[in-house]
Specification:
The protein is α+β, with helices and mostly antiparallel strands. The radius of gyration is 31 Å and the shape is globular. A hairpin with a 5-residue loop joins strand 7 and strand 8. Helix 2 crosses helix 18, helix 2 packs across helix 19 and helix 12 packs antiparallel against helix 13. The strands form four sheets. A nine-stranded mixed β-sheet has the order 8-7-6-9-10-16-13-12-11, sandwiched between helices. Strands 4, 5, 17 and 18 form a four-stranded antiparallel β-sheet that branches. The chain has 21 helices and 18 strands.
């Protein structure tokens, strides 16, 4: 709440703008802004002014994005839900749910370290909407509250929240999408207390850093996360998938409410026979197979493929359907061929082959130079040359496309190589452009199976959003213990959930935007506190918003944000 206060100091009157909020059950002043003396205020108004005039220098606060997400969190009763499973520390103090919601809102719009959250909070409209003061937002206060949140509590909160979302928002559940990724961290290599951040294969190429893995289960209905799992960075995708199968089976009972069945869509990196058999009693499955393991399917002639419905697949896609036993039971198999995929894979393969050819040629020149008499330096061995050539050809299909021959005589090793055009032509005629899908939905059409698998982009989009440096950013993670990393991951997934749900609600109102576009547009809406004066008496303060562009004006109206200026 804003108010103007006059102070008399040495007989002179000075005006101040004060912000008050409820703290520990009492109204306290949380921010004070000096406006000036009566003469200074009069000078700002100008001589001869009439009516209500604006005093320059009005405070401006971030409003649109934080308030829209805060409003949604209020409707979901996020704070109450968290507090139900994690009671607060002491009477009168802000609850754990309040701290975690604030952390999620910050992650959504402007990720800061816990030490910087207080300063950020004071610059937002949240300072008057949440019962907090900046003094309560020290990093130590946050860590103390995060310490109270156990892994068991996180699972319970997420389960109840997912049930609520399905019940109240009627989320589409015909297909759910599961996948995993990892995030690099800057946790010290010698920190032995952390077991989640480990050396592993970074999907962003940062193998020099410790990484943590994150698995998500999202809806095809605007990528809303229903389940997440944080796992050690040195676990591969199949290992992490085995770890979550039983939780996914337990979640099925709450996810399937009023639905006839749910199909889980998986990337081929998650294929394991034991995990798929465990899932089979709950979910239907659509996934893809490693093509190299099913060469007989790649050899099916194109004459046996048929065109998929052009209305659903404008880019020509053909398919061949059969049945085959995979992962211990019979499945429907659909092999697809897509011309766009073929062209993209061909260009990629030719680009990589050209790079390898150049590097092999440079190695060949170096080996020839070493064979000359009088060449200085350590003499190369045939084994060393062969190892260098193998390193150059590291990568998918490269060793199949090049024939390398290393010989040795009294002058030393010699290297010859050639590009195998026959192998390349065979690769193009059998593998490139093709995808092998499997499912136990034997009653689905080919079009339904292919469309379901292509929906995997939903979870990929969720991961891209969490790797965005501006909005809903997982990094940087300013924590180094396992427990705090788990809480950090939970707040990041909660931020993604709020943003995805808000985007879904706008789409239902006819406003279609990405999360980045939505938060950027809402972020342009600021709250402005103006002091109005009629030239005499105490000025009064009015809350208003900054000038709105047409798109921001529409979001302001559709989300009824004006309510939070009047309150």
């Amino acid at each position: 709440m804003s108010s103007l206060t006059a102070k008399k100091i040495n007989g002179r009157t000075y005006w101040y703008l004060r912000e008050s909020a409820w703290v520990d059950g009492k109204s306290k002043i949380v921010k004070t802004r000096y406006l000036g003396t009566a003469e200074e205020v009069a000078a700002k108004l100008g001589e001869g002014s009439s009516g209500l005039d604006l005093i320059p220098g009005a405070p401006v606060y971030d409003f649109g994005a934080v308030v829209a997400l805060f409003s949604l969190a209020e409707r979901l009763r996020i704070v109450e839900l968290i507090d139900k499973h994690v009671p607060k520390r002491s009477k009168g103090a802000p609850s754990v749910g309040t701290y975690l919601l604030l952390a999620a809102l910050n992650r959504a719009v402007a990720a800061r370290s816990k030490a910087q959250l207080g300063a950020w909070f004071e610059r937002t409209a949240l300072a008057r909407l949440m019962r907090l003061s900046a003094k309560q937002l020290t990093s130590q206060r946050f860590w103390d509250n995060m310490d109270r949140v156990s892994e068991t509590a996180i699972v319970a909160i997420e389960r109840e929240l997912s049930t609520q979302l399905i019940r109240d928002f009627d989320l589409g559940r015909r297909c759910l999408f599961y996948d995993a990724t990892n995030f690099f961290s800057y946790i010290d290599s010698f920190n032995v207390r952390n077991t989640l951040a480990q050396r592993g294969k970074s999907k962003e190429g940062r193998d020099n850093l410790r990484i943590v893995g994150l698995a998500l289960l999202v809806t095809g209905d605007f990528e809303i996360p229903l389940f997440h799992y944080l796992y050690p960075g040195n676990h591969n995708d199949p290992t992490s998938f085995r770890s979550v199968v039983m939780e996914l089976v337990d979640r099925y009972r709450q996810l399937v409410q009023s639905a006839e069945g749910i199909t889980l869509v998986l990337d081929k990196g998650n294929n394991t026979e034991d995990a798929l058999q465990a899932l089979g009693d709950a979910y239907h499955v659509v996934g893809s197979l490693v093509p190299g393991h099913h060469t007989e399917l790649l050899s099916v002639p194109s004459t046996q493929f048929h065109r998929l419905d052009p209305l659903r697949f404008p880019v020509e896609t053909t398919a061949f359907r059969t049945t085959k036993e995979v992962f211990g039971r019979p499945h429907t198999i659909v092999v697809t061929y897509n011309e766009n995929l073929f062209e993209a894979q061909t260009k990629t393969l030719e680009r990589e082959a050209a790079k390898r050819k150049l590097r092999l040629r440079n190695l060949q020149v170096a080996v020839r130079r070493a064979r000359r008499k009088g060449t200085k330096g350590k003499r190369r061995s045939a084994a060393g040359v062969r190892k260098a050539a193998d390193g150059i050809l590291h990568g998918r299909h490269m060793k199949d496309l090049f024939v390398v021959n290393v010989t040795e005589d009294k002058k030393g090793p010699a290297l010859r190589f050639r590009f195998d055009q026959h192998a390349y032509d065979k690769l193009k005629s059998t593998l490139l452009g093709k995808t092998i899908l499997f499912t136990d939905n034997s009653d689905w059409s080919d079009e339904d199976i292919v469309a379901a698998y292509r929906g995997q982009h939903h979870v990929e989009k969720a991961f891209r959003q969490m790797k965005d440096v501006r909005y809903v950013s997982f990094r940087p993670a300013h924590h180094w213990t396992d427990q705090k990393l788990m809480v950090h991951a939970f707040t990041c997934v909660l931020a993604l959930l709020l943003c995805s749900l808000l985007r879904r609600e706008l789409a239902q109102k006819g406003v279609h935007m990405s999360v980045r576009e939505m938060l950027g547009t809402l972020g342009s809406i600021n709250e402005v506190h103006v002091a109005l004066s009629a030239g005499r008496g105490r000025p009064r303060v009015k809350r208003t918003h900054s000038k709105l562009e047409p798109q921001a004006e529409r979001l302001f109206q559709e989300l009824q944000l004006g309510h939070y200026l009047a309150s």
